[in-house]
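=== RUN LOG ===
request id: a7f3
mode: sequence -> structure
chains: 1
length: 337
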Amino acid sequence: MQLIECVPNFSEGRNLSSVESISRAIVGVKGVHLLDVDSNASANRTVMTFVGEAGAVCEAAFQAIAVAQSLIDMRSQRGAHPRIGATDVCPLVPLADASMQQCIELSHKLSARVASELEIPVYLYAKSAKRPERRKLAFLRKGQYEALKKRIEKENFAPDYGPNIFNARAGATAIGARDLLIAFNINLATTSREIAEKIARQIRRAREEDQVGALPECTALGWYIEEYKCAQVSMNIMDYRKTSLHGAFLEVKRLATELETSVTGSEVIGLLPLQPLLETGRYCLGSSKNKESADQLISEAIDFLNLGDTRPFDPQKKVLDYRLQNLPPLRNMTPSS
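=== RESULT ===
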C-alpha cells in the first residue's frame, strides 16, 4: 500500500466551529483517516494530520482547502504564527511504499486544481519547488499575508499555479512534498517574547554560519502564547536524524540560561515519529543498546523533555507509528479510479 500523509496548516485556531467544518471535509472523503487536529488560539492556527492513498489524500486536501477558503477571511485574521493564506501550507509526505517523486507529482496535481477551481495562488515549496529560494517557507512568508498584494505583482514572485492576482480573502497557499518533520515548541520560564526571539535568532544564525554545536535542518521562531502565559521557542526539526529532540532541547536550555531564564518543558504540534523519542530515551539512559523496552524509553523521553508541561502528552495519540498501527486496512476503503 502506498500511504501518503498530508499535514495542512489552517490560519484558524479560535473558531472551533470552523475547525470542525474543515475536519468534516476531510473525513467525508472515503479512504482517508484523520489522525490528529491540533489548534492553538494564540497562534490562531490549526494543524491537521491525515493519511490515505494518493487519490483520496488529494481529494481530501482539496476539499479542506475549499472549506477553509469559505470560512477564513484573511483580511481580519491575526495570530502569532506567520502565514500567507487561509490554508497557509499543505505538505505531502511519503509513508510506507510511497515515494517522494509520487508526492511531488501529487503536489502539482493538487496545486493545479486549487488554482483553477478555487482561484487561490499556489507556490510550490520544499521538494516540489521549481526555484531554489522557494524551498523554504520563510522566503514565501516574507512580510506575510500583509505583503502578499505587492509581492504577487512582481514577476519574480508569480505563483507556480494560478495568475499573479491577489486573492484578498484566501491569500495564497504553499503546497509541496517533504519528509517527516517535528513541530517542537520549547516553553520558557518567562513571558518575554523578546527573549524567545533572541534565542531563535541565535539558533538560526548558528545554523546559517555553520557554527560548532549548531542545529542543522532546524528552523526557529520566538513568540508569546497567551494560553500558557509563557514565551516559546517554536522549532521545526526538518530532519530528526541530524537534529535530535534532546539536542534541540538542550541547546535552547543553554541559550535560555545565558539570558538568565530557563526552560520549563515542551510540546509537540501534530504528530511525531517514534524513532526520535526512542533516541532521546536512550540518551537519557546513556545507552546505545536496544535492551530497554519502547515504553521505558518513551517514558524517559517524556520526562526529560517535560512534554506534559502545558498539556497532556499521550504517546498512543501523538506518535505517528502508533496511530498507523491502529488503522483498519485502507486499500479496501479507497475509491476505485
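=== NOTES ===
Residues 100-118 form the longest helix (19 residues).
The domain at 182-324 is CATH 3.30.70.670 (Alpha-Beta Plaits).
=== END ===
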